[in-house]
Every structure is written in C-alpha cells, then in structure tokens.
Amino acid sequence: MALKQFAAIYHYSIPNTLEKEITIRTYKINEYILTAGEEIDGFYFLISGKYFVSSQEITGKELLLRYCQTPAIMGDIEILEDCLIQSNCIAAEPCTFVFIPKKIYEKELKYDASFSQILLRELAYKLRTCTISSRVNALSPANVRLAAFLCTVSSDSQVSYISTNNLEETAALIGTTKRHVNRILKQWMDQGIVERENDEVRILQWDKVKEISEDVRFE
Amino acid sequence: MALKQFAAIYHYSIPNTLEKEITIRTYKINEYILTAGEEIDGFYFLISGKYFVSSQEITGKELLLRYCQTPAIMGDIEILEDCLIQSNCIAAEPCTFVFIPKKIYEKELKYDASFSQILLRELAYKLRTCTISSRVNALSPANVRLAAFLCTVSSDSQVSYISTNNLEETAALIGTTKRHVNRILKQWMDQGIVERENDEVRILQWDKVKEISEDVRFE
DNA sequence: TTCTCCTCGGGACATCTGTCCTTTTGTAAT
DNA sequence: ATTACAAAAGGACAGATGTCCCGAGGAGAA
Q1: In angstroms, what separates the C-alpha of B113 from chain A's closest C-alpha?
Q2: pLDDT tens digits for range B123-163
Q3: Residue B186: which CATH number?
Q4: 3-class DSSP state of A27
Q5: Mind listing the pLDDT tens digit for each residue in B28-40?
Q6: Distance (Å) of CA B206 to CA A180, B169, B197, B212
Q7: Which helix (H) or strand (E) segment is B6 a member of?
Q8: Which nucleotide in the DNA or RNA is closest to residue B164, CA to C1'?
Q9: Residue B197: CA atoms inside 13 Å, Cβ hemisphere, count?
C-alpha cells in the first residue's frame, strides 16, 4: 500500500491516528496537478512518476523551473508562506501522490520535528537546485538549455526524439521561442547531431548533445 | 543585548542553557561574510544591516541572487544539505549576526520544532523569491534588471546614485558587462532619466526607473 | 479530385548583448 | 604646466535571439 512506499521514500511513518485522513491522488500524463494562482489544499508527496514545474510571467512567457522525481514534495512553499500556488506542476509521466490535507498538517504535524525535518531537507534541496538553475537560465545560451533539457527529460527513458507537436511547448519551457528552437535544430541537423522526419526529431549523437549541455541539468 | 533582538525578530527564544554557546559576529561594509566553496560553521541570523548574495560560475560570471534584510538566515542550505557554501555573501552595510555553531544545532536544536519552524519559513521564503528572480533573470532584458536592481537597493535609503567605481560590480551582479551598463545609462541620460557627474550617476526621475523595472525586485 | 485553411519551417530584419579596441578623462609625478 | 599612465567611456563589429511574414505541405470539406 502507498503508505509503506511513503515511509520508505521519505523515512517517516505517518502516525496511525492520521492514516484515515490521508488519500492517494493520481494524475495522467500531461495532466495539470497544480495550477499557478489557485489555492493549495495540502501537501503532495510523490510516490511514483515524474512531473515538471514551470512558472509564467504576466507576459505569458514561461520557464521550466525543475523536473521532479521521488522524493519530491509539492505545496510546501504555499502552505509555509500561506500564499497561492506559485507554479504550474504538470505530470510528465503517470504520477501517484500521498496527499496530506493542509488542516491535518496545521493540527497534527506542524510541530512534529521529524516531519519538519523532511520538509527542511526537501526545501533546502529545492533551494540549492533553484539557485543553480537560476544562474544557468540567466547565463547559458538557448542551445545549451535545449541540450540540457533533452538530457534531463530523457536521462533514463529511451525517448530519443522530440515530437514536433511539442516544439512550441519545449521552446517555452526553456525560455525561448519556437523559431529559435527550429534554428538550433537546423544547425544540429547540418552537423548530423539530429535528423528530422515527419513529426519527430531523432537524436543521432547523444554524446554531442551531452557535450553541448555543459552538464547543466534541470533536475 | 543581541539575543533580545534575536527573539524579537525571529519569534524564538534560545534556551538559556545554550546562551553561552551563541556568539555575535559583525562585518564591515563590503566585507565577505561567506565565500562559496568553503565549509560552513553554523547558522547566521541577521540582526541588523543588509547583505547581498551572489553566485559565480566556473567562467567567472557572477549573478545577484538576493538582497537581504532582517529577518534573514545564512547557512541553512549548507547545514541541511551538508554541502559546501553555495554562494558569496557580502555586507552591503555594516552587519550584525547571531551565530549558532553547527554542532549546537545538531545536538540541541535539530529536533526543536519551534526552531525548525523558523528555518522552514525562511527557506520557503527564499525559495519563493528565488523562483521569481530565476524567471526574471532569464526572461528580462538587462535594462529591466538594472532598473530593478536600483529599486531594490535604494528602496528605503536615499541612495539616488551609483558610484562609478562600482559600475563593474553592479554590472556583474545583474549578469551583464560594464560596457552594456554604460550603454543603458547613456540611453537613460539621453532620455533625461539620469545624469552623470564626476564619479556618480544621479537618478533624476525615479518614477521612470520604477516603470522600466516592471515591478521586478531582487528582495 | 480540388479547393481552402491551418500549421510548420525557415527567410529577412531588428534588437539585445558581448568582445575588442580606440578615444577620452582624470591623476600623479616631473 | 607638461607628460605619462591608468581607468572609464564609447565606437565598431559579431553573435544570439525575437518578431514578422511568406511559401510549402497536410487535413478536411465540397
């Protein structure tokens, strides 16, 4: 049962008395898990799957902030800072979460030091990686970010292509335009790093892509 | 005495038994408080003054991450993640800190739920603002960042000028070059927004600068 | 099949920004 | 005052990236 996995992943056993308050939430691929600007209802502890986090400016510009695997927690900033949801979270694979309602946290877990330790570690991790990616996003040109994105997304899965249908979205995530992604891809084609066919871009030389990415990752 | 200020700022009273372990640390303006890559020795709780946080790439490129006033804590990421110091912290004004050695935290405060709550709030705040500035740094052009920097730095003080001696540093902090800052300043001069005289740049129309900044801040 | 419309890739151009180098300016020594 | 040196400002050019737009190809309707 999911609570066992929870305990294994997060090194914390939820008190028996609270178990009946905890629920499981699942999401399909590409489904929005959280939407920026809405109210948060509790903590989401990732048990399986992957999701990515992106944020939007008023201008509509978007930017990939993070790509998450277990362990990963959503809702922490919002509950601790008592604010609206800060970023969009979208399932990159089917996802399963253990959900702890905000009220239960406030009443039962807020002063549980072990539970706090989980949150502290998660926040510190997020902050460290956010700091890194902040620098990267600001100082790396778009071709590096695109390569880094590809390396991040397909680190283990065998996805060696980008569907052309997603080009627009991919571009937004790395903070640029479809036009520019096309430009980069064309350049890579000329160098034999990728090939395009119908609706997909196939990567022929992963080592080259990794080289271009300069070890930047959105983990 | 500083511990009283600490209690007032952070809403937490350090247990009497620990008071003798706590020290006060002060820094002069422009002094390095923490240097990236070194070992952390404890938590630093800002009591008075301001400092800024910047990080550096291997290339030497630098980027302003945050501008801090009370309440602000240093050392949290490093102690919680058990890693080396992530960023440079430099005093922007004379600064006073309450210093809690790492060992005291591990032994006495780690499972103190109230102390954890302070850290959680601070981390959540940092993460939220880091997320915002990440987007800003990536998606805003340099003139917006420069305006935002000026607004952030002089939000309350009456500093209405940049000393020319700092131009290089200012440029680095907003992630660009002195050449480009000069270009932006020249443009602002032509528009009558600033004037230059001897070693300083005086801002004539704060409202224009605020407008250019698009409400971006590095706080 | 043919026409229409929509989307995608890419050309052309403008803007932003970095690098390199020349000119200008300020300062100190003679 | 003159000269010499160092630091700052700015010109010139190149590369990165955004915007606008056009032509080609595919999907659906007639």
Answers
A1: 5
A2: 999 999 888 888 888 889 999 999 998 888 776 555 566 66
A3: 1.10.10.10
A4: strand
A5: 988 999 999 999 9
A6: 36, 22, 17, 10
A7: helix B2-10
A8: D8
A9: 7
Q: Which nucleotides of D are covered by protein (CB under 7 A)?
A: 8-12, 16-21
CATH number of the domain enclosing B80: 2.60.120.10
Strand partners, A197: A200
* B51 and B113 part of one domain: yes
Rounded to whole angstroms, the distance from the CA of residue B62 to the C1' of nucleotide C24 is 29
d(CA B216, CA B200): 24
User: Do residue B155 and residue B127 come from a single domain?
Assistant: no
| Average pLDDT estimate for A35-51 | 95
Smallest CA–CA distance, residue B211 to chain A, in Å, is: 15
Q: State whether B129 and B147 are in the same domain.
A: no
Mapped onto helix, strand or coil, the DSSP state of residue B100 is: strand
What mean pLDDT, rounded, does chain A reach? 88
The H or E element that residue B55 is part of is strand B51-56
* pLDDT tens figures, A138-184: 889 999 999 998 888 776 555 566 666 678 888 888 889 999 999 99
Structural domain containing residue A177: 141-213
Domain assignment present for residue A218? The answer is no
User: Taking CB atoms and an 8 Å cutoff, what residues of chain B touch A57?
Assistant: 135, 139
Tell me: do A123 and A157 sit in the same domain: no
Please indicate, yes or no, whether residues A62 and A130 belong to a single structural domain of this protein.
Answer: yes
pLDDT at residue A216 tops 90? no
What pLDDT is stored for residue A22 in this prediction? 94
Lowest mean pLDDT among B66-70, B75-79, B117-121: B66-70
Task: State whether B134 and A86 contact (CB < 8 Å).
Answer: no
- pTM comes to 0.85
Mean per-residue pLDDT over chain B, rounded: 88
Task: Tell me how far apart the alpha carbons of residues B40 and B79 are, in angstroms, rounded to a whole number.
Answer: 7
In this structure, which amino acid lies at residue B81? Answer: E
Closest chain A residue to the Cα of B131, Cα to Cα: A130
What whole-number distance in Å separates Cα of residue B61 and Cα of residue A135? Answer: 9
B13 pLDDT band (50/70/90 cuts)?
very high
Cα B21 from Cα B193, distance rounded (Å): 52
Using CB atoms, pick whichever of B83, B114, B137 lies closest to residue A134.
Answer: B137
Alpha-carbon distance A197 to nearest alpha carbon in chain B (angstroms) = 31
